[in-house]
Amino acid sequence: MYSTGSRLRITLFGRSHNECIGCIVEGLPKGMRIDFDNVQRMMDQRKPSDGIGTPRKEPDAVIFEEGVTDGCVSSDKVLIKIMNTNRKSSSYSGFNVTPRPGHADLPALMKYENFDVSGGAQFSGRMTAPLVAAGAIAIQFLMEKGIRIAAYTKRIYDVIDDSDHTFEEIESSRGFRTRAIGEQLDSKMADAILEASKDGDSVGGVVGCMVTGLQPGFGGIWFDALDVTLAKMMFSIPAVKGVEFGKGFGLAGMKGSESNDQYYIKDSKISALSNNMGGICGGMCDGMPLVFDVAFKPTPSISKKQRTVDLNEMKDATIEIGGRHDPCIVPRAVAVVEAMTALTVMDQYLSDQKY
């Protein structure tokens, strides 16, 4: 089992091809009513879309095994389970000997005795399903406090959305299968995925996320800084290889006079002329919307022939990966980014004595 969080603590358990996966959520307010329909809607956002996603379909029905009575949190611990109903472990036979490039197979086989790579095991993106369920509860809690979270697909391969968007525009991405903003980008991104899939290949991309309603001073410093804890959670998502707040690496090419978000008064409140810092300074919110991007690598399971090694004979080998895999996981990852953001923000909300 794997745990994270302080006041809101999440413990993840299971493996991709076990009977079930799940998590234990500690710290939810007792008496809080859970909107089960909203939890399932968010789970549905994580499911693969026809044509651009994996053929593996799971109902992902969320089971509240313990800690919820008559629709309300009734215990210090809430146990969430999701059954794995569509498993084909035979598709992974052989990968214990010839590890898949880009996967955790090789380091895991070196680290753990008798490790079974089936389904990616505990390293699989399948493990994000219970986190999305828990995140849906956190989103509900935060909305009641006036804090809103939304994410969207900002890039898939060479199709890039470089526009600034309002929160409402980002929310509208939920109506498109790629989670892009608008029909034109949705079509172009879907085409990029399908083209790679036809060639037996895959593509990566970027998810953009925005949080509104955070008051100036929200967050922490040093190891408890909001951007630090968010980055940790984002890098916990399988396939994430980069996190960037505001202009991020672009700040390295600016002068201070260009990068500083200069303040002014608007409607008797402090605002800023820009949001290059992404709404965070010193690990705390500065009153601007919190914005950050998360980079996802291409799905490593591809049918193109690749070089690997034979661990039994310690010689070079080749591999062609079959099975059921997403040619691009970015559209499904949008809901995961939203969920992990919500879990982080709720934990900090509960940990901040000011609130």
What's the helix and strand layout?
Layout lengths: L1 E3 L4 E6 L5 E7 L9 H11 L16 E4 L1 E2 L2 E2 L3 E7 L21 H7 L16 H16 L4 E9 L2 E2 L6 H5 L11 H16 L6 E8 L13 H10 L4 E6 L10 H4 L3 E4 L2 E4 L7 E2 L2 E2 L4 E7 L9 E5 L4 E5 L10 H22 L4
Antiparallel strand pairs: 1-2, 2-3, 3-7, 4-7, 5-6, 8-9, 8-10, 10-16, 11-16, 12-13, 14-15, 17-18
Helix pairs in contact: 1-3, 1-8, 3-8, 6-8
Please give the alpha-carbon distance between the first and last residues.
31 Å
Structural class: alpha+beta
Described by strand count, sense and barrel closure, the largest sheet is: 5 strands, antiparallel
* Shape by Cα distribution: globular
Secondary structure tally: strands: 18
| CATH T-level topology | Chorismate synthase, AroC fold
The tally of structural domains comes to: 1
What is the H-and-E element order? Answer: EEEHEEEEHHEEHHEHEHEEEEEEEH
Strand content: 15-25%
Helices, by number, come to: 8
The percent of residues in helical segments reads: 25-40%
CATH class reads: Alpha Beta
Strand order of the largest sheet: 1-2-3-7-4
Mean pLDDT: 93
Our Rg estimate from Cα atoms comes to 21 Å
The CATH homologous superfamily: Chorismate synthase AroC
Low-confidence stretches: none
CATH architecture: 4-Layer Sandwich
